[in-house]
Amino acid sequence: MNTLLYESHDFIGVLTLNRPQALNAFNSEMVDELLALFPDLAKEKLRCLIITGSGEKAFMAGADIAEMNALPYEKAVHYYCDASNAAMEAVEQFPAPVIAAVNGYALGGGNELALSCDIRLASENAVFAQPEVSLGIMPGSGGIQRLMRAVGPGKAKELLYTTRRLKAEEALAIGLVNAVYPREELMPAAVAMAEKIAANAPVGVAATKRIANASIGMTLEESYRLELEAFGGCFKTNDQKMAMTAFVEKRKPEPFTGN
Q1: Residue 92 host element (H or E)
Q2: What is the mean pLDDT of residues 184-209?
Q3: pTM for the complete prediction?
C-alpha cells in the first residue's frame, strides 16, 4: 500500500493515513486502497480498529483538490462521491468498533472519515470543518447526513453553510468528539480505550454496534425487533455462558474468545 500503513496486535488494529507530504489528503489511490483493505481487515477478527494520520499536522486535510479539479467529470464523481462513500460505509459498517484518533486537521473528507468512526478522540491541535461549498461543491462522502446526526441539524447546517472551522475544544462542546488530549497523549489514550473495548465479549460488542447503526431512522418498535434477534444470538455463545457463570460464582471471568 502506498497511501496507508497498517499494523495489529492483540486484536487491535491501527490504520494510518500515509500521505504526510499532502497532509494525508484523500485521493483516488487512497480510495482504492481503503476499499481493497477493509474486506481483508474484516477477516482478521479485530476487536477494535484505530484510524489516525501520519505526521503531526493532519488526520486528513480533506480531498486532493488538485487531483479532483484535473479529473474528468465521470472520474471525479466516481472517486470523490461514489467510491469515497463506499469507503466511508466500509468504516461505519466494520464489524468491530472504530476509533478516530484525530491528530490535526480533519477537513472535508477528513471530517467525513472521522464521522464514519464510532468514537472520535482529538488532539488539542485538531481542527474540523466541511469547506466544500467554498470550493463550488458540497460534501460528497456522507458528511451532511453524519454531521447532522452527530451535532443536530441546526449546528450542522451552520457549519456546512459557513464552512467555519472548529477547534478541538469547541468540537468537544458540541459533541462532535468524545474527548480531547494533548497531542502526545492522543494515541496512548486511543490504545487504552481500544484495549478496554477489546477486553469485552466480541460477539456482544459487534451486535451492539450493528444494532446501534441499523436503528438510526427506525421506530422504537422496529429497533426492538432487531435487538431481540441479536440479544438471542448472544445466548448461543460460549462467552456468554462463561461470563455469566463467573459472575454468579463471584469470580473473575476468563478472557473472551469470540465464540
Answers
A1: helix 83-92
A2: 96
A3: 0.91
